[in-house]
């Protein structure tokens, strides 16, 4: 299909002239061009092979990939990419003439027609013409990942994705995400339902390793009406190894860093009837001050403290290790009075850096592990917070869709 509108014709002529002279309006295209950059042997007469990122009639095409073109055994001589109503999309050729890409991303939910002409070294020509429709905004899905790019975290921090739509093809989505460590530790994914996917090694990350998360979800179909668009790489660092063990029966928490005990802190854990979970828990959030209202965790009317200092979240359900200024000094190290949290002695306002609550806050990273033991309660559920370490490696691997 050829458009005869003057603006379209001028745009096509401009693109064609640029392609014929081997110039580029925005510089080299990049990966697509490099993939096709092998030279054509002198005197070769192969018919050019035009490669497109969409098929004729395809729907839900990626707005970042749909209009891209690469050619093997030849060079591009003309590209026309236009919407159904004749609006021509500007594009740029690579310096080699073997790749072409739109300038910017395409519009969502839009029908396009793409025509490509290429010529081989022996004079043979090839033409491809397709029509496709890009993915609609309402048909996208997104995965929110933690930790973020550039973060420094503790050795227990998993890579956790939360998707905004239920994923039906979990294998396709998981296979499009690659997590690797500079330590060489194998990393495996585990699905908690249809919206959450966590990755971790068999044992805690090696201290001072670098974790790379390659997210290649662009164009991946996660379910009907759920197509990915993310294509980025996240890197974060693991800090020193710190694992703290809170013993609810002795009312002590031992803080061990890189194999050496830093401190043993007196604590108060959950009282009878509101005991603290046992198990390996990962600090997922640090708050210098927060409100804790019993109504949000099933203890309506029992407490509402507007300024809990030095709070570090251990579970989604409301377990924290935090400073406690309202309990008598005598309870720390001697009795359990909390509603399920691990409490450390502190002052109102949290302004005294010598208090145990302030010291532990200042010496902890998101991703550090706090192990609770000898509490009169069961082990915390692996999906209650970032606590997949409370699952055997066999069970963890069984939850992978790969």
Automatic annotation (TrEMBL):
Top-level taxon of origin: Bacteria
Functional pathway: Glycan biosynthesis; Cell wall biogenesis; peptidoglycan biosynthesis
Record key words, sorted: Acyltransferase, Cell membrane, Cell shape, Cell wall biogenesis/degradation, Lipoprotein, Membrane, Palmitate, Peptidoglycan synthesis, Signal, Transferase
Record-linked SUPFAM superfamilies: L,D-transpeptidase catalytic domain-like (SSF141523)
L,D-TPase catalytic domain sequence ranges: 242-373
Signal peptide, first to last residue: 1-31
InterPro entries referenced in this protein's UniProt entry, alphabetically: Big_10, LD-transpeptidase, LD_TPept_cat_dom, Transpep_catalytic_dom
Alphabetical GO biological process terms: cell wall organization; peptidoglycan-protein cross-linking; regulation of cell shape
Catalytic residues in the record: 322 (proton donor/acceptor), 341 (nucleophile)
A cellular component annotation (GO) from this entry: extracellular region
Molecular functions (GO terms): acyltransferase activity; peptidoglycan L,D-transpeptidase activity
This protein's record includes keyword Transferase: yes
Protein name per Swiss-Prot or TrEMBL: L,D-transpeptidase family protein
Organism per entry: Streptomyces fagopyri
